[in-house]
Write a structure and sequence with these properties.
The complex is a heterodimer of chains A (135) and B (160). With 135 residues, chain A is α/β, with parallel strands linked by helices. In chain A, the strands form two sheets. Chain A has a four-stranded mixed sheet with strand order 1-4-3-2. A four-stranded mixed sheet of chain A has the order 5-8-7-6. Chain A is built from three helices and eight strands. In chain A, strand 6 and strand 7 form a beta hairpin. By secondary structure, chain B is an all-alpha fold. In chain B, helix 2 crosses helix 3 and helix 3 packs across helix 4. The N terminus of chain B is likely disordered. Classes of the chains: A alpha/beta (135), B mainly alpha (160). The interface between A and B is medium-sized, with 25 and 20 residues.
């Protein structure tokens, strides 16, 4: 087997809110949702890419002390987390669909460098670029 | 305590301030008076300016200038459109103001910048365009007027 990335995590302000966003608006499905007390391991995956899980994690105890959790919540809300890129076959089509579902777009689809890209945020503030795959 | 202050802002407020920042990013050529930005963030104008600076480290107007210059640098680098067109398209009301502000922030005139940037543009080809652009965003840590003032002082200081 080749080495690969299996799971990447995002911090979110509310796991239920994030789950409904990624499932209902972006087409992901629940992969794992298990709890132990306050801790909830929650990952989703997209049917087009079953090898990758996207973790939706809430900063806080028992993993983080309150000051660290507050810092992480602030960083996410300020949009300062690293860039995320989602690839779609048709950017304008995806924009229409997602915009219709109430996704907060920060940039409308734009032609450049031989492809089309747009940008949106999840409810927590994580920023996604939406790029049309080159044909 | 400063470090306490840095993290004490309510994440819910920060998320709304981010929305105002996103709106400037999406349309940096437009006018963004504090009143308009405050409306986007659903806070008072007085509260907005202070909260924005606390959250993002620069006053909203200065942030807007960096985005305009960033966009102008991209347009200068990636095409051959007349500099006047680029000035108006990126939100300046005159070529003079654009040229002066551009030089104050980047240290070069728009035409000098264009010549150098076009020669060096190839290296970033595999990186998505918006992130390349962000990497070239001017780091404007002081006010443009302050930068001008300091440069004036330097010029007036006799060399040994």
């Amino acid at each position: 087997m080749n080495q690969s990335v299996r799971e990447v995590g995002l911090y979110v302000r509310d796991q239920d809110e994030a789950l409904s966003f990624y499932v209902e608006k972006l087409g992901f499905q629940i992969h794992t949702d298990v709890r132990n007390g306050e801790y909830r391991w929650l990952t989703v995956q997209h049917p087009d890419q079953p090898s990758l899980q996207l973790g939706l994690f809430k900063p806080g105890p028992p993993v983080h002390d309150e000051a660290t959790a507050q810092t992480l919540r602030a960083i996410v809300a300020k949009g300062a987390m690293p860039p995320l890129v989602m690839c779609v076959p048709d950017c304008r089509d995806a924009y229409q669909r997602m915009h219709g579902l109430g996704v907060e777009f920060t940039q409308e689809p734009k032609d450049r460098y031989g492809t089309v890209d747009a940008a949106f945020r999840d409810p927590s503030g994580n920023g996604w670029k939406l790029i049309e795959a080159r044909r | 305590m400063v470090s306490g202050e840095l993290t004490s802002q309510d994440p819910e407020l920060l998320r709304r301030l981010l929305r105002a920042k996103d709106r400037m990013d999406a349309a940096s050529h437009e006018d963004w008076p504090v009143r308009r930005l405050a409306q986007v963030s659903r806070v008072s104008a007085a509260h907005f300016a202070r909260s924005f600076k606390q959250a993002f480290g620069v006053p909203p107007h200065r942030y807007l200038l960096t985005r305009r210059v960033e966009r102008a640098t991209a347009l200068l680098r990636d095409g051959d459109r007349p500099i006047t067109d680029i000035a108006y398209e990126t939100g300046w009301e005159s070529l003079g103001t654009f040229g002066r502000t551009f030089r104050d922030i980047t240290g070069e005139s728009p035409s000098t910048f264009r010549a150098k940037a076009q020669a060096a543009a190839r290296a970033f080809d595999p990186v998505p365009a918006c992130f390349v652009s962000a990497a070239h965003r001017p780091d404007l840590t002081i006010a443009v007027s302050e930068k001008r003032r300091r440069q004036k002082i330097n010029k007036n200081t006799p060399r040994r």
